[in-house]
Amino acid sequence: MKLSHFLACSLASLASASVVALENDTPVGAAISLPRSNSLLARFPFSNNKHRKDNWGNRVEKDRKEITIRASKNDHDDVSADFLWALKRANHGGLVHLKKGKKYVIGKKLDLTFLNDVYVKLDGELKFTNDIEYWQANNFYYAFQKSITFWVWGGKDIKIYGSGVINGNGQAWWDGFSGAEILDPNNKYYRPILFLTDNATNIEVSGLHLKDSPCWTTFFVRTKNVVFDDVYIDAVSTNASTLPKNTDGFDSLNVDGLTVTNTRVNVGDDCFSPKPNTTNIFVKNLWCNGTHGVSMGSIGQYPGVKDYISNAWIENVTLLNGQNGARLKAWAGPNVGYGFIDNITYKDIHIENTDAPVVLDQCYFNVNETTCAAYPSKVNITNVKFLNISGTSSGKNGKVVADLTCSPGATCNGIHLEDINLTSPAGSPSQIVCDNIQGDIGVDCIPASEADD
Ligand SMILES: *[C@@H]1O[C@H](CO)[C@@H](O)[C@H](O)[C@H]1NC(C)=O
Ligand SMILES: *[C@@H]1O[C@H](CO)[C@@H](O)[C@H](O)[C@H]1NC(C)=O
Ligand SMILES: *[C@@H]1O[C@H](CO)[C@@H](O)[C@H](O)[C@H]1NC(C)=O
Ligand SMILES: *[C@@H]1O[C@H](CO)[C@@H](O)[C@H](O)[C@H]1NC(C)=O
Ligand SMILES: *[C@@H]1O[C@H](CO)[C@@H](O)[C@H](O)[C@H]1NC(C)=O
Ligand SMILES: *[C@@H]1O[C@H](CO)[C@@H](O)[C@H](O)[C@H]1NC(C)=O
Ligand SMILES: *[C@@H]1O[C@H](CO)[C@@H](O)[C@H](O)[C@H]1NC(C)=O
Ligand SMILES: *[C@@H]1O[C@H](CO)[C@@H](O)[C@H](O)[C@H]1NC(C)=O
Ligand SMILES: *[C@@H]1O[C@H](CO)[C@@H](O)[C@H](O)[C@H]1NC(C)=O
Ligand SMILES: *[C@@H]1O[C@H](CO)[C@@H](O)[C@H](O)[C@H]1NC(C)=O
């Protein structure tokens, strides 16, 4: 190419975003446009632009080519094939843009494990069909708690952000599940998880609303470095006789690096609950309403399997109208697993109208004193701090506002409470229960046998 021609081309592409010629496989209504800054000039060694990189060393948004697809005309107009095409086109440095005010319906399962450096700018709504028959026959299955999902995200360097919505269209699923229990071994009515990553490194989700998941809202498996910031999660039923069930905000399995900040969760189950083998957890500025709390575990459920959760920092969390506030749970009894929960800090936690504001349970699940003594937990619980915990219980557990029950003879030490101001409408002074903990816990406490609950 002659230099003059080269410069002309480069300057032309500087002037405006250009639409690339469409190729044969381009779906109807889709388009690819080059970045405004897509000039070879901009990459000249002395250009000012050459250091523009995101936090993973990749191109920033405005340096990416942008792929758009047509929107759906109605809730049955499936654009999953278009969306998959767009992600393939945007992979390795591009961006898929789903526009504000538009709906994009996903009606087929999607394997998105091939990603490497991609942005999805979601300003519109990604909505799943509620074709229960289809999804129960076509999904991705995970043996862990018999989970299924609509799609799997995997690979590396994936950012999904914008002001849009991922809508699980959960109502029909909750209605259909009515009366069933997820832990019932005979249950075959599986419901999809709304957002799942597997074998992924570097996932960032921000700004979005994750709405009405049929089951867990998010689940991260074999994943490194997940960040959720400024996200709103809710699951709200319009059918008075069927509530959303098991719509947990955050779950994880074999994850290193899980960060959730500036997020609100309004669901009827766990707000944030890392599961086996989650390490380096950071939570700050989280609001949970009507939930089962911020809960480490349960872990140690499966015989012969080692599980652990370690290095968690949980700060400035508000928990309202829930079953639990700050909780840790490890299995005891015959035929369970082993492992540890270590180095967990809950700091500046405000709790209101919650049945069990603070719980440490090393005799999970409902293992009575006799059985817990006969089969103590083999999950060691060490170095757990509760600092500056305030608010009120619902009074459901009487005067008890914190219940710390370890297995007799198990390892349970380095448990420290400080600046605890939790009251109960059932009367004062409120009570802190502690059983079988080694060493001083920093506050006055009584054995369960003496509690007014
Ligand atoms: C995980 O992803 C990497 C590429 O990111 C791939 O090489 C590897 O095979 C994947 N592992 C599994 C178990 O899928
Ligand atoms: C609410 O859910 C129940 C249980 O599945 C179902 O029988 C009923 O038809 C639903 N009501 C509405 C208005 O959809
Ligand atoms: C604590 O989190 C709430 C959101 O739940 C936020 O509004 C508030 O600014 C945070 N406080 C601090 C000190 O960051
Ligand atoms: C909080 O949850 C309660 C029920 O658990 C609900 O009535 C209330 O509307 C929720 N508040 C907000 C702000 O979402
Ligand atoms: C947790 O990690 C250990 C290895 O340290 C592994 O043996 C175990 O299977 C993992 N647990 C789960 C539930 O994957
Ligand atoms: C405990 O966890 C924190 C993060 O919350 C981490 O900074 C610290 O290094 C961990 N301590 C140890 C001894 O691993
Ligand atoms: C639990 O603690 C005991 C006593 O310190 C130790 O022998 C055992 O190895 C620990 N188990 C795990 C899984 O860390
Ligand atoms: C205690 O936590 C509350 C939030 O629940 C916060 O507003 C307050 O500043 C904290 N107190 C101290 C002394 O840090
Ligand atoms: C404790 O639980 C075991 C096993 O479920 C049961 O057999 C036993 O009767 C219970 N003991 C008490 C005192 O409730
Ligand atoms: C404990 O909290 C109550 C409000 O729930 C407040 O009135 C009281 O001053 C607090 N006490 C301390 C010691 O901070």
TrEMBL record:
Specific in hydrolyzing the terminal glycosidic bond of polygalacturonic acid and oligogalacturonates. The lineage of its organism: Eukaryota, Fungi, Dikarya, Ascomycota, Pezizomycotina. SUPFAM superfamilies: Pectin lyase-like (SSF51126). It catalyses: [(1->4)-alpha-D-galacturonosyl](n) + H2O = alpha-D-galacturonate + [(1->4)-alpha-D-galacturonosyl](n-1). It holds the Pfam family Glyco_hydro_28. InterPro entries: Glyco_hydro_28 (IPR000743), Pectin_lyas_fold (IPR012334), Pectin_lyase_fold/virulence (IPR011050). GO terms for molecular function: galacturan 1,4-alpha-galacturonidase activity; polygalacturonase activity. Its EC number is 3.2.1.67. Belongs to the glycosyl hydrolase 28 family. PANTHER family: EXOPOLYGALACTURONASE B-RELATED, PTHR31736. Residues 1-17 form the signal peptide. GO terms for biological process: carbohydrate metabolic process; cell wall organization. It is found in: Secreted. Keywords: Cell wall biogenesis/degradation, Disulfide bond, Glycoprotein, Glycosidase, Hydrolase, Repeat, Secreted, Signal. GO terms for cellular component: extracellular region. This is galacturonan 1,4-alpha-galacturonidase. It comes from Paraphaeosphaeria sporulosa.
